[in-house]
Amino acid sequence: MDIMITLSVLATLGFAGWLCWLGYATTEVKDEVEEIKSNLLLTEAEVKKLTKAKLVELADSLDIMVDPKSTKKLIVEEIERHR
């Protein structure tokens, strides 16, 4: 009888943990999607105002391969070409 109680408690805790993980993962994915959407809504003028480091970060978040050593102008052109 004690084994059944222990197993049911462990199963309940495991299920609760799994649900918590799903909620965390869902929130994380939603945040990432919102960030990508906000990056896509930037105008070309707003993109040009970003620093080179932010441009490289933006390109990375949009899965655009850019050389961090290239000029800011080339990075902006590459981002605009893929949008």
Give the N-terminus to C-terminus distance in angstroms.
63 Å
Quick one: how many beta strands?
0
- Listing every helix as H and every strand as E from the N terminus to the C terminus, the arrangement reads HHHH
Question: Roughly how much helix do the residues carry, as a percent range?
Answer: over 70%
Radius of gyration: 22 Å
The class by helix and strand makeup works out as mainly alpha
Average pLDDT value?
A: 78
Number of helix segments? 4
DSSP strand content? under 5%
Q: Largest sheet at a glance?
A: none
As residue ranges, the low-confidence spans are: none
Shape assignment: rod-shaped
Account of the 3D structure:
This protein is an all-alpha fold. Helices cover 80% and strands 0% of the residues.
Give the key terms:
mainly alpha; 0% strand; 83 residues; single chain
Short description:
The protein is mainly alpha-helical. Helices cover 80% and strands 0% of the residues. α3 (52-61) runs parallel beside α4 (72-82).
Secondary structure layout:
Blueprint: H1 2-40, H2 44-49, H3 52-61, H4 72-82
